[in-house]
């Protein structure tokens, strides 16, 4: 029997594991992106609070 190569000789179970692994990796990357966005938003809001407090103090 001739070899068909690693991609075509994978079992169905191995392929399912690879698909699940790739999907989980994609979810993890997207979650990291969401965490990065949340951190950036929090930083901006803190800066807005600081500027607002400074102006409030200056106008008082």
Automatic annotation (TrEMBL):
Superkingdom field: Bacteria
Q: Give the protein name, as stated in the record.
A: Uncharacterized protein
What is the native source organism of this protein?
A: Longimonas halophila
